[in-house]
Structure formats: C-alpha cells, structure tokens
Amino acid sequence: MIDYINKILxxxxxxxxxxxxxxxxxxxxxxxxxxxYIKCKHFTSFSKVTPKRxxxxxxxxxxxIIEENSFTKDDENFDISSCGGFIPYLRKLHANQxxxxxxxxxxxxxxxxxxxxxxKAILSIGDRPIDLFKFLEPFLGVDNIQILDANRAASFRxxxxxxxxxxxxxxxYQSLRNIGVEFIERWEKxxxxxxxxxxxxxxxxxxxxLRIILEAVISxxxxxxLDAKSYRKSYDIALSSLYDKQYGILDTLCEEELQQAxxxxxxxxxxxxxxxxxKLLEINDAEKIKEKDLxxxxxxxxxPITEKPFTDxxxxxxxxxxxxxxxxxxxxxIPYTLLALSQNNDVQIKLQEExxxxxxxxxxxxxxxxxxxxLTQVVKESLxxxxxxxxxxxxxxxxxxxxxxxxxxxxxxxxxxxxxxxxPLYNENPDFHPQPEKxxxxxxxxxxxxxxxxxxxxxxGFGARICPGxxxxxxxxxxxxxxxxxxxNVELAMELKDIIKVERFAIMSKNDILIRLLPRVKNY
Length: 524
Ligand code: HEM
Ligand SMILES: *[C@@H]1O[C@H](CO)[C@@H](O)[C@H](O)[C@H]1NC(C)=O
Ligand SMILES: *[C@@H]1O[C@H](CO)[C@@H](O)[C@H](O)[C@H]1NC(C)=O
Ligand SMILES: *[C@@H]1O[C@H](CO)[C@@H](O)[C@H](O)[C@H]1NC(C)=O
Known about the structure:
By secondary structure, the chain is an alpha+beta fold. The chain has helices at 2-9, 19-22, 33-49, 80-83, 86-97, 116-121, 137-140, 150-160, 166-193, 201-217, 228-245, 252-282, 294-300, 312-343, 345-359, 366-371, 373-385, 423-427, 470-487; strands spanning 101-102, 110-113, 199-200, 391-396, 400-403, 410-413, 417-422, 488-492, 501-503, 507-509, 514-519. It has a single domain, classed as CATH 1.10.630.10. The chain is built from 19 helices and 11 strands. The protein has a 4-stranded mixed beta sheet with strand order 1-2-7-4. It has a 3-stranded antiparallel beta sheet with strand order 3-11-8. Helix 9 runs parallel beside helix 19 and helix 12 packs across helix 13. The radius of gyration is 23 Å and the shape is globular. The protein binds protoporphyrin IX containing FE and 2-acetamido-2-deoxy-beta-D-glucopyranose (3 copies). Heme binds at residue 467.
C-alpha cells in the first residue's frame, strides 16, 4: 500500500538518454512536453551564466517579486532529466522555492501557477500559446480547434457542443457498450484458454478507446469501412514522427512513413466524408437526423467563422483533432483505475457491491451509470491520482493584474505570458486534498465534495477551454470499468515498482499495466 502511494506521487521516470525515444507521441491539447524540455534546457543553462532579475511580476503595489537565480545550492544540481520529467522538475522547483507562482528556470515568458485564486481569475481567458502546437500542423492543418484563438474557438465550440452532449451519448450508448462487451468477451476467451493469462491493459484499452471515440464522433455503419488496427497504427506513426521531425531527428525512411500515415488517414477520412454526404442527402427533410454527431455537424452545417460549409480539409483536420484528444486520454485512465482498484481491495469490493445491487448481473444502461454514485467517485478519484493530462496552458495576451491566494497580494502578468497549470501539483497538494496519498473515492461523495475548493481539481481543464469531451469521457470510462469489475476481480500482474509513468501526450505507463482478471463467483 505504502509502495503504491509513493510510486504514484513520485514519478519514476527514465534517464535522459532515452528521452527522445520516450517523449514521442501525441500532444495536442496538452502543450508539448518535449518542446518545454528543449526550451528549459536551453534556458536553464543560459541563466546559469547570466543571472538576471525577471520582470514577470512588477507592480508598484504590494506585489510579489520573484527573482531568478535566488536558488538554494540544491537548485543548481537538477534539471528536467535528472528529475525524470517536466512535472517532477516543476514539482521540485515549486517545493524548493516555496512558490505558488513560479517563473525561474522555465522557458521565456512562461510561469507555472499553483494557486486556485489566480486560476479563478483567468477562467474566461480562452487563448492558448499556439507555438506549443505548431508541430502538429502537417496533420491537423494550421487552423484546428486546439489552436484557434479565444473568439473563434468559442463559436466553434458552441456549434459542436450538442454532438458531445447528453442526447447524442444516449443515442449512441448501445453501440458504445457493444464495443466494451466485445473486449470483455475477448478477455474471457483468453482466460478460458489459459487461466493464468495476463492482459496488457494499456495496450488493450488504447485500442478500445480508439474504437469508442471513432464510434462516438464518426459512427461507421459498416466496420469494413474503417479498420481500427491500421487506423491506430497510422495515428501513432503520424504523431510520434511529427514530434521528432520538428527537431530534425527524423530520418528519410521515417519521413516517408510519416507521409504515408498522414495520407492514409486523410484519404480514409475523405472517403468517409463522401459516404456520409451521400447518406445525409438520402435522408429527406421530414425525417431529419435527430441526434447529429460531430461528423454530421461538420458535414451539414456552416463553419461559423466563414459562414460557408466546411471544406473537406477543415472536416478532416477538425475530426482528427477530436479523435486525437479523446484517444490516449480515455485509453490510459481505464488501466490506471484498474491499477488503483487492485491496490485498494476495499474499494474494489464496495464498487462491486454497488454494481451487483444496481444491475444484478445485467448490462449497465446509460441511466444505471449515473445512478451508481460510488462508481462515479471511483473514476473521479482515479483521475485525481492519475490525471492523464499533465497540464493545461493559457496565453495572457495583454498585461493583467490578478488576485492570489495570499490576501492583499496581487500579481501582474506581463503581455504575452504563458500560464501553466500542472494537474499533479494541485491533486497531490495536502492543502487542497487532505491525505493526498490515500485513494479515497468518498472525497467526491455528495457530503464531502464541497470541501474541495474550486479549481484545485481540474483533470479536464477549466474555464473557456475546458475539455468539451468530459461528459462523453466520463460515461465511457464508467461504462468500461463497470463492465470489467462486474465480471472480474482485478489483480496487478507485475511488480508495483515496474509501474513507471512517462510523460507523453498523456501520462502513460512505460511497461504497460499488466492485469490478471479473475472471473467472479457472483452472489446476487
Ligand atoms: C479521460 C479523458 C480525457 C481527459 C483527461 C481530457 C482532458 C483534457 C484537457 C486537460 C484539456 C485541456 C483543457 C484546457 O486547456 O483547459 C482537453 C481539451 C480538449 N479535449 Fe479532452 N480529455 C479527455 C477526453 C476527451 C474526449 C473523449 C474528447 C472528444 C470527444 C476530448 C476532446 C477535447 C478537445 C477537442 C479539447 C480542446 C478544446 C479546446 O481547445 O477548446 N477530450 N481535454
Ligand atoms: C511571445 O512569447 C513567445 C515565447 O517566448 C515568443 O516566441 C514571441 O516572440 C513573443 N511574442 C511577442 C509579440 O512578444
Ligand atoms: C476547423 O474548424 C474551424 C472552426 O470553424 C475552421 O475555422 C477551420 O478552418 C477548420 N480547420 C481547418 C484546418 O481548416
Ligand atoms: C488587487 O487588484 C484589484 C483589482 O485588480 C484591486 O481592486 C486591489 O486594490 C488590488 N490590491 C492590491 C493590494 O494591490
């Protein structure tokens, strides 16, 4: 138990020589960690030679002054590699300086904030630092939702919001659940053949999550039209290669592979667009589709910005952006939740009791999922302890003065500053979450949830650019966890010390998460 706790709080990451290999895949919604890694490296070695005072905080009033190079001796001796990643590096910087607002040893014009009052004050700010996302342009186009400025993002989000809302999820629930059941049956078969089978849950759940997100945003009638395995392979090649490419470390062979992968994904989506256009034309006005999914909206409605229909290019790029955002994030939190259950047997038993009491052995309906409060609490607690998104970023375009947690102290943030919100630093802070090392789903129970201060728990981000897929993600995760623990007891089939988190687009597990599923003897 203690091992488990130490493990999750202290990222046990890899040595610096492997970084280029590790920090590959996927960053869209979350700023590129690799980008920050490179920037910080240059910046910290630079600042060692040329000490200077930062002007980040500079109001005449009672404001906080943050000085660079006012480090303790210890500060000289660590960088991102020696800490094992950007998040542990940030953690150490904040701890060493006792600072809620941190600007030293970060890239230029960047501050990291662990202060819910500052965050509250920037909820309405909807701009992101687009340079962090630039490397994805060849895949996503220059203009996808992630990098739209605040105004354009707001009008686009308004248009597509219904596609990720309650009614569409309910309409699709049956087919989403079928995908979950397919995986359960696959694992059952595996265990039947060999009861000692160990399941690579991260690998499996990534595939599962891709299938689910494709069903949720595109919905293919004929499975032959979209081969999820090839699609997944191409997606992963495209993203990891783009990552490498921006630093010129992609060789010609990979360059070709990258282009092939992008071409494959784009042409496949192009074909699907033609099919869906035809299908929508066939449906006459009288029986207009009631619940438009994202694909339907992009095909049948006007782009709110140009007020003309979306071009194929715009549809492809924006669809790709949504799939990318929902794929690894949803895929990794399911195995992390199983990991937590395997280490907290009381929680697992209590969850199974709720499931048995509610379902008595049948499959969960959509309504069942909202009725099972403990299930929701378990998933929320798992997102606190294992947030898939390591941080969110906002761009402050013009000079802004903001209140802070420290009463009567304001901070002034200069124009063109990137604010980082590192999820783990909030989630593990005992001021915000008492006994943060304890996996305790009941912190989210209806009587205790009010103790959680606003903006100290944001696995889906916050404010104007909060994740638009939160509702969909929550019901997918709850559904899959419910299907699994209804049928099986879960056990970790590897040593806890080998669970090593690595920073990628989402925080992944380097050695996968190996789980043994033990069929339950049911007693309802
Ligand atoms: C466990 C699952 C998920 C997690 C933890 C997660 C987390 C996040 C976070 C932290 C952000 C950044 C928010 C901010 O900057 O304040 C984000 C943005 C986004 N997410 Fe998710 N997400 C998940 C699932 C999904 C799903 C299933 C979809 C799609 C259907 C999705 C679509 C998006 C999009 C499009 C954005 C960008 C929104 C914008 O720029 O306005 N996410 N997500
Ligand atoms: C804003 O900051 C970024 C990141 O440091 C820098 O590249 C860019 O030149 C700055 N832009 C302006 C207008 O100062
Ligand atoms: C994605 O959608 C936005 C919002 O409507 C649109 O302005 C943009 O052109 C689209 N993306 C691309 C690459 O065309
Ligand atoms: C902090 O800023 C607020 C609003 O910007 C202002 O009303 C207040 O007087 C400031 N407080 C201090 C101590 O500067």
